[in-house]
Amino acid sequence: MEKIVYNDQGLFHPGHVACGGCAEALSLRVILNTMGKNTIGVVSPSCTAVICGGYPMTSTSIPIFHTTLETAAAAAAGVRQALEARGEGDTQVLCLAGDGGTYDIGLQALSSAAERNEDILYVCFDNEGYMNTGGQKSSSTPTGARTGSTPTGKTTHKKNLVEILAAHRIPYIATASPSDLNDLRTKVERARDMRGMRVIIVLIPCLPGWGIADDSAVATARLAVETGLWPMVEIFDGRDWRLTHRRGTRSVAEYLKGQKRYNHLQTDDIEALGREVDEGWELLNARLGQGPAGGSGNPQHRAAANTG
Amino acid sequence: MDDLPSPLWTYLTSDNRLTGTWRSALPRHRDVPSPCRGACPVDGHIAEWIGQIRDGDMHKAWLTLVANNPFPAVIGRVCHHPCQSVCNRSELDETVSIRSLERHVGDHAIAQGWRLPAPGPATGRKVAIVGGGPAGLSAAWQLMRRGHAVTLFEASDAPGGLLRSGIPSYRLDKAVLDAEIARITQYGLDLRCGERISGRAGLEKLRKDFDAVYLATGASRPRHLPGLAPDSALARDGLAMDGAEFLRQTNAGETPPLGRHVVVIGGGSAAMDVARSARRLGHDVTILALEAEETLPAQRDEVIEAREEGISLVTGARVRAIEPAVTPRVAGLTLVCEKVRFIPGARRGEFTVEALADSAFDIDADAIVTAIGQDADPGIWDGLITADGALASTGDSWQTDLPGVFAGGDLASMDRFVSAAIGMGKEAAEAIDTYLNKAADHEAVNAPEVRFDEINTAYHPPAPRQIQENRPVEERLDSFIEVQLPLAAEQALAEAERCFSCGTCIYCDNCYVYCPDMAVIRLERGYEIRTDYCKGCGLCVAECPTGAVRMMAEVQ
User: Which end of chain A is more exposed for a tag (fewer CB within 10 A), N or C?
Assistant: First the structure.
């Protein structure tokens, strides 16, 4: 059995107010401790804001700048510029946002920062909805999922943020899952050691929002990977696509049946979702074949410089 | 910042917020019994020693094994392995080859010449053991390691019991048996071979000379069929023989003078042993058993291997009469047989049969060997201990109604398996220890066993079982060379990797890294839950690969 290894330096503290069993908290723990102490966090309103904060307490041993929902990436870029001005170029800027602040409300700021290739690591905790405010749909909510604002199931597709980001040709994009913490750690390390705009999207099964048991966030994320619903990829310079986990072969139905947000789905709906997953993989497979070295080039030394 | 906190900045860490108050149940790390251990007659800590093989510590694995069974190399060859029938892994792909792994460790220990760990401080108590079979030797080792002085009386000229006189060398090489027994005798055992203890006076003297007595005289009285007993005309003419006597002779290197075609009557392991030994001595062999093939008491592998070696099986049938052969030039005897339906009784060894109409048939034979089981003879103590039929009556903890006298093995149980005898020897030794110390110090395991659904199989990818090969048939029949070949070292390691380690912490850190609340602390060996912060979510339980963490109600 492969052991999960990372050096917990105590940068994330107990006593935070994430729901018991929250996969975002355990992912944040890996990310903070992998980034190290020489990091400044920038957080927009989200579950992360609640987990890190709760004035007058903080659960992190790094400074966190709480900003507005529209401006996570812009604020992070500002912090970056301030650090450069002070000659503290070694300090990493870690932007943490939810899918609402990334796919929807903060997309303009994210796109602009990406276009300018700002030197920040942007992590999106994607729990597929506005789960912190009662569970409304976001543009990341998948087809069919029931949320507070889509009581009969969402009729539109989940936005393909990975494609949007790849179109910006930024140095590094990755997707990750709390079911594979070694992979998450490796991706954070890789991003940490690069410069320029880097984005990691972590799937976070939301216990109340998805209607799953307190102890099942990791198992649900694992199923998302093993059913092919959540492809695990790395993209270098927007062109060189790699898979970090082969496409799983378990049935999509197996993933759906454990979640209350999909309880209402009929067989037809489930089959349609299965087709959507297949289509996503057709597109992804086409991308995997088009990299500069057929998708197998060396990921080292691909960092694009940003001197600010 | 120095005096008054800025309203813009947090000034406390969340450690001050005790989220443990959210919790309704608390996870606990505990070693929970695995199903294999529950099924093991010696209560072997199987998950633990397989984990030690996996960690590359063969010596520790061996020490874990011998704590419950001083014969891993023997049992790794001949055990009926009830552990493998209940292995949780069989619900994922195939059971773990526990017996093959046990042999692997046992053989390694013999090759390395490892000695048993030093005994505890001497207690000054003396125990007599009557019978040097697996039960007696197991009890001897368990008593000696607890510091008691043990004298073992063995009627024959060498210890081992059925392991020596009953199990043929092609299943258990005598060198292996000798090596494992020598470890026990060299441990300080006062071994008295050739001393038969019997009768009221014999037992009374032991009671006087020793602080406790353990009777493990085995089952040495063969059951007979009418007309085939040792005093029958057929036996006198060399046409009929008892199976136990046949095996005693062949195990001693003698060749019983029987004609070419031997019919073996019986369907248990002993019948298979007789048949396959006879085959190795050049006989044509037919086995005649009451039971249908799928319910034969012999182990399935033995039946398959007997067939491979060219032995004919006639099952669900019995002999009605034995007559001189119609064509004496072919064979001396004709067995008039009929087909039957075998109906097992309530207790092991009890049964009834119904003959099937118009099913008569004949089998020609030059000799008949009867191997239908053996009984103990508790009568040899002249009624000093109470008997129930052919078994000594024992209450709790193998104690007879005579104070200080314990009984076990085939003398006190119909569980006719070597591992069961070793387990009974161990249990009796613990009971004797308690009796001698006038105190109970043996902890009972009563947590429920780990179920398959408590194992997170995401951490156990499917992996085919490692096959322990047999020697090719053509190489087997020339001699009594062992049939089973050992696992290669890399096979053993791969097989050890397959074990789920049900209920046994493997220190994988999953509980630690998956805790969203930093509420699991790593200790030097093991983990502790920080009750101040644990929210009781159960992720550590769900992501434990072995089922060693369970949610428990908290004591208020």
Answer: C
What pLDDT was estimated at residue B444? 57
- CATH architecture designation of domain B14-30+506-552: 2-Layer Sandwich (3.30)
pLDDT digits (tens, 9 = 90+) for B433-460: 999 986 655 555 567 899 999 999 999 9
Give the list of residues 6+ apart from residue B542 with CB closer than 8 angstroms, or none.
A215, A216, A218, A219, B456
Rounded distance between C-alpha atoms, residue B220 and residue B164, angstroms:
13
Contact state of A222 with B519 under an 8 Å Cβ cutoff: no
pLDDT at B25: 95
One CATH from 3.40.50.300, 3.50.50.60, 3.30.710.10, 3.30.470.30 for B126-220+376-437: 3.50.50.60
Other Cβ atoms within 10 Å of B393 Cβ, number: 15
| pLDDT at site A297 | 39
A222 close to B (CB below 8 A): yes
Closest CA to B442 of B429, B453, B458: B429
- Candidates B500, B514, B541: best to mutate against A (most CBs of A within 10 A) is B514
Q: How many angstroms separate the CA of residue B50 from the nearest CA in chain A?
A: 14
Confidence of residue A298 (pLDDT cuts 50, 70, 90): very low
Class assignment of domain B222-372?
alpha beta
Task: Name the residue facing A21 among B15, B17, B538 (closest C-beta).
Answer: B538
One-letter amino acid for residue B179 of the chain: A
CB nearest to B14's CB, from A3, A14, A20: A14
- Nearest CB to B514 within list A26, A54, A214: A26
Its CATH architecture, for the domain B36-114+451-495, is Orthogonal Bundle (1.10)
User: Looking at residue B327, what is its pLDDT?
Assistant: 64
Closest CA to A235 of A180, A192, A175: A175
Counting one residue from chain A and one from chain B, the pairs whose CB atoms sit within 8 A come to 119
Contacts A181 to B, Cβ<8 Å: 513-514
Instruction: Show residues of chain A in contact with B532, CB under 8 Å.
Output: 14
> Where along chain B do its domains lie?
14-30+506-552, 36-114+451-495, 126-220+376-437, 222-372
Estimate to the nearest angstrom the gap between the alpha carbon of A108 and the chain centroid: 17
Smallest CA-to-CA distance from A61 within A88, A32, A82, A94 is with A32
Interface residue A6 vs chain B (CB under 8 A) = yes
Q: What is the ipTM of this complex?
A: 0.92
CB-based contact B14 A4, cutoff 8 Å: no
Q: Do domains B126-220+376-437 and B222-372 have the same CATH topology?
A: yes
Are the CB atoms for B265 and B274 separated by under 8 Å? no
In a 10 Å sphere around its CB, with 0-12 CB exposed, 13-18 middle and 19+ buried, how is residue A286 labelled?
exposed
Mind listing the domains of chain A with CATH numbers? 23-288 (3.40.50.970)
What pLDDT shows up at residue B3? 66
Structural contact between residues B201 and B394, judged by C-beta atoms closer than 8 angstroms: no
Q: Is B181 helix (H, G, I), strand (E, B) or coil?
A: helix
A303 has a pLDDT exceeding 50 = no
From B7's Cα to the closest Cα of chain A, the distance in A is 8
Residues 525-544 of B with CB under 8 A from A: 530, 532-533, 535-539, 541-543
Mean pLDDT of chain A: 93
Unique residue bearing structure tokens 């007997």: B306
Q: Judge whether B22 is closer than 8 Å to chain A, CB to CB.
A: yes
Within 8 A by CB and 6+ apart from B258, the residues are: B238, B241, B278, B283, B366, B367, B369
Q: Does B16 touch chain A (CB under 8 A)?
A: yes
DSSP B370-423: E-S-EE--GGGGTTSS-EETTEE---GGGB-SSTTEEE-GGGT-S---HHHHHH
Mark yes or no for CB contact B17/A15 under 8 Å: yes
The H or E element that residue A281 is part of is helix A267-288
